Amino acid sequence: MFNFPSFRTLTVLLAGSSLSLAACTHTGDPAPSPSGGNTGGSGSQAAYTVAGVVLDTKGQPVAGALVRAENDVTHSQAEVHTDATGHYTMPKLEFGGWKIYAWKETTYKGQAYTLRMGMPNAADYDAFSTTAQGTVRNFRWQLSGRIPDRPISSMSPGAGYFGGAFRFGTLDSNFNSLPAGTEVTVTLTPVAGATLFDGSAPQVIQKSFTVVNASPAQYNYWLTDIPQCEYRITAQSNFNGITKALTLSADLAAPYQTALPGNYFKSSGSGSYESGLGEPQIPVIYLR
């Protein structure tokens, strides 16, 4: 089952009264078109309801996905699960200010993950009011990309993406840094037999950053929005036209190596409205 942090009581205020809603699955509801726009409604959809479909990365239905509607104005929310065809229908939501989210559960290397689903358009993440014709909100699983309603944070640089983030440090055990202006290129090579969350084949990823040692000096650099996979990490530097291989360590006290194998993103063990992957298995990877 989904293991979320504690949220406000699942209560929807309807026509001056309140209706308590337990999480439930709707299997006989009208089926909105999964390929249509995310505004407007289905002709057979009940007034002031929200309905839609949750699809995986290949466009196939996701059964059992959790869909939550939350209203910050009335401090109410409702939850349902998708049926066998990936469709859901929320109960009647007559007051404005709703936002809607969806998650699916999966496992990777024996760990359980609760993954937030994406939406077709950035505007679909905004608060909305339901209509007398009904409202459609569709979802699709994304392995990477921006989460429009989650800001990129300087306090948590890996935030705001469906993919994960690795953090690299440029200080060695003697607190010496790579020279300012050094361009570092990191290569993430999937280990043999590794797949992405959805079972598809991963690709080699290369990302770069430039070392800044001006005041204030910067010794930590994040590479963000990386799809979940088990990677072998290598790196090289270019300074004053000279390119050389860097060595890496997951601990300043440990020996440096030419490559670090077996790096992937841990499960946080719970979901939230905003969560992507975010948390690296190794907090800092040191380079020299």
Descriptive overview:
It is a single chain. By secondary structure, this protein is mainly beta. It is built from no helices and 20 strands. A hairpin with a 4-residue loop joins β5 and β6. The radius of gyration is 22 Å and the shape is elongated.
Describe what is shown at a glance:
The chain is mainly beta.
> Tell me, what is the CATH class of the largest domain?
Mainly Beta
For the biggest sheet, the summary is: 5 strands, mixed
CATH architecture of the largest domain: Sandwich
| SSE-based structural type | mainly beta
Strand order of the largest sheet: 3-6-5-8-9
Identify the overall geometry.
Answer: elongated
Radius of gyration: 22 Å
CATH fold call of the largest domain: Immunoglobulin-like
| Poorly predicted regions | 1-43
Please estimate the helix content: under 10%
Q: Note the gap between the termini.
A: 44 Å
Count of distinct structural domains: 2
The overall strand count is: 20
The average pLDDT is 81
Fourth-tier CATH superfamily name of the largest domain: Carboxypeptidase-like, regulatory domain
Order of helices and strands: EEEEEEEEEEEEEEEEEEEE
Please report which band the strand proportion falls in: under 5%, 5-15%, 15-25%, 25-35%, 35-45% or over 45%.
35-45%
The DSSP helix count reads: 0
What topology emerges from the helices and strands here?
Elements: E1 11-14, E2 17-20, E3 24-25, E4 50-55, E5 66-71, E6 76-81, E7 87-89, E8 98-108, E9 111-116, E10 135-136, E11 139-140, E12 164-169, E13 183-190, E14 205-210, E15 220-226, E16 231-239, E17 242-246, E18 248-249, E19 260-263, E20 285-287
Parallel strand pairs: 3-6, 4-10, 4-11, 12-20
Antiparallel strand pairs: 1-2, 4-7, 5-6, 5-8, 8-9, 12-15, 13-14, 13-16, 16-17, 16-19, 18-20
InterPro entries: Carb-bd-like_fold
GO molecular function, one term: carboxypeptidase activity
Pfam family, one: CarboxypepD_reg
